[in-house]
Design goal:
heterodimer; A: ABC transporter involved in vitamin B12 uptake, BtuC; 13 helices; 82% helix; B: alpha/beta; 2 domains; 33% helix
Chain lengths: 272, 225
């Protein structure tokens, strides 16, 4: 316990803990909808767009704290484009694949033409426990509040849209509004969380908790609650493992999620 | 009394004209079946009526507020593994446009309870929807649709994938609802059941309306062809 308190006396650790917990929580809630609607790869596509935006910000010579002024608008715009293409043509996987690979290649070209793969770009790709700033911490707290309000106020709407979009639309509910709201908040989650998790791994926070939890619950409400708990617990396990074993943070958190997912799958398969 | 009037309605599905120049009327109390092979434009027409597909040309007039329409789509796109209980799904049928309360009202819960009891689904209240049989799932979705106390129900091939005994049971259920005053518009390619239950029939063929008339006229038409 004393060691834990001692650990939290490091400002970087407090920042990582607060930001990461908030991001895991938000990603898990949004992930429930994205996974059930089979839009989960949107997270991965947006993370690749975020990498491209970071490469641009680094090439422009902006400081890490200023990167968000480039990444945020670019990723939010990309989320709207992906959602529009997905809704229009009904071929979401193709839209995500195109935007994602296009952005990744553009990011690599920008990086090669500027300073090459320096520490900044490397950290953004794979995540770092040291990378989270005070600014990220405050932003993540605001994000948690916004996501929580959305889930409390619009819970019934979100359930209906996730379960049966046609019925919701036929009932006069603005499905587009809620889908764009979810895309916007997913984009924010990725932009704030990518410094800890890395652009290559951030989408796992969206996918794993929902996939793990859906095997254990029978109601949507329980899925939302359990996903948030699983996500935060896995994040904490991954973060401390990363600190004590000196492993990359993002990979450790994904590792914790994979272990829990495999354990739950094996237990439920045995039960079935 | 007419409750739905379509005049020269054309609807595109993507770049294809799925419904071409369709004109028909639905009267209050009809059990109106839209017959036709797969791809004839039945589903798109229903989507057009409910506002899921934009109408390219022509005029479609519903003679009462749209909130009194319930729509049951061809196949629920949510996977069978969707984590939701029967109660959660039925209760969601009480949602209307413009009303975004974080919790369901007492009245909403009462209406959902009534629908659930009416369809005999109360024993499955806390059962996960995916654990029900195909017929029970349809009953749950029908209970959800009934939460709106609909005046008009639009049903898009509601028995697709169900065995004949369950389809028969559900057809009778819709007939009972129809007798209670709910107008039914159903897309189907089951000509035998249409002949047994419908009061009026419209036949669609390659996006065109080939025939509209009473069930007696339909039978005579089938006999002639």
């Amino acid at each position: 316990m004393a060691e834990l308190i001692n650990l939290l006396s490091y400002p970087f650790m407090t920042r990582a803990l607060v930001t990461g917990t908030a991001i895991s929580f938000c990603a898990a809630l949004l992930g429930v909808i994205l996974v059930l609607k089979r839009y989960s790869m949107i997270g991965h596509g947006l993370a690749d767009v975020a990498f491209c935006a970071v490469s641009l910000a680094v090439a422009l010579g902006l400081s890490p704290a200023q990167h968000i002024f480039v990444t945020l608008p670019v990723v939010v715009a990309a989320s709207f484009v992906i959602m529009s293409l997905t809704r229009k043509g009904g071929k979401g996987d193709v839209a995500i694949g195109m935007v994602s690979t296009g952005a990744l290649s553009l990011g690599i070209i920008i990086t090669s033409l500027s300073k090459g793969f320096n520490v900044d770009v490397y950290n953004y790709m794979f995540g770092s426990i040291l990378a989270s700033s005070t600014y990220d911490m405050y932003l993540s707290i605001v994000l948690v509040v916004v996501v929580l309000i959305m889930f409390v106020v619009f819970y019934n709407r979100l359930f209906l849209i996730t379960y049966d979009e046609s019925f919701a639309q036929a009932s006069g509910i603005s499905v587009n509004f809620y889908q764009f709201l979810i895309s916007f908040l997913t984009a924010l989650t990725i932009v704030i969380g990518m410094r800890i998790m890395g652009t290559l791994l951030i989408s796992s926070l969206i996918i794993f908790p929902a996939v793990t939890s859906r095997r254990l619950v029978r109601s949507f409400r329980s899925l939302v609650v359990l996903s948030a708990i699983v996500s935060v617990v896995c994040f904490l396990c991954g973060l401390f493992t990363s600190y004590y074993l000196d492993l990359p943070t993002g990979a450790s958190i994904v590792g914790a999620n994979i272990i829990v997912c495999v354990m739950v799958t094996l237990c439920t398969l045995r039960k079935e | 009394m007419e409750i739905l009037t379509a005049s020269s309605v054309t609807i595109n599905y993507g770049n294809v004209t799925a419904v071409d120049n369709a004109s028909f009327t639905v009267n209050e109390g009809d059990y109106f079946c839209i017959a036709g092979a797969n791809g004839s434009g039945k589903s798109t027409l229903l989507k057009g009526i409910v506002g899921l597909c934009p109408i390219k040309s022509g005029h479609l007039h519903i003679h009462f507020p749209k909130e009194q329409i319930s729509y049951l789509s061809q196949s629920n796109k949510a996977d069978r593994d969707f984590p939701a209980t029967v109660w959660e799904i039925i209760l969601s049928g009480t949602q209307k446009s413009g009303k975004t309360l974080p919790f369901y009202s007492k009245e909403d819960k009462m209406r959902a309870e009534e629908s659930m009891v009416k369809l005999g689904m109360e024993k499955f209240r806390n059962t996960r929807i995916g654990n029900l049989s195909g017929g029970q799932q349809q009953r749950a979705l029908l209970a959800r649709a009934l939460c709106k106390s609909p005046r008009l129900m639009l049903l898009d091939e509601p028995f697709a994938g169900l065995d004949s005994s369950i389809s028969e049971e559900l057809y009778s259920l819709y007939r009972d609802l129809n007798k209670q005053g709910v107008t039914i518009v159903m897309a189907s390619h089951d000509y035998q059941a249409i002949g047994k239950y419908a009061s009026r029939v419209m036949l669609m063929n390659n996006s065109h309306v080939d025939f509209v008339g009473s069930i007696e006229e339909w039978r005579a038409n089938l006999w002639q062809n």
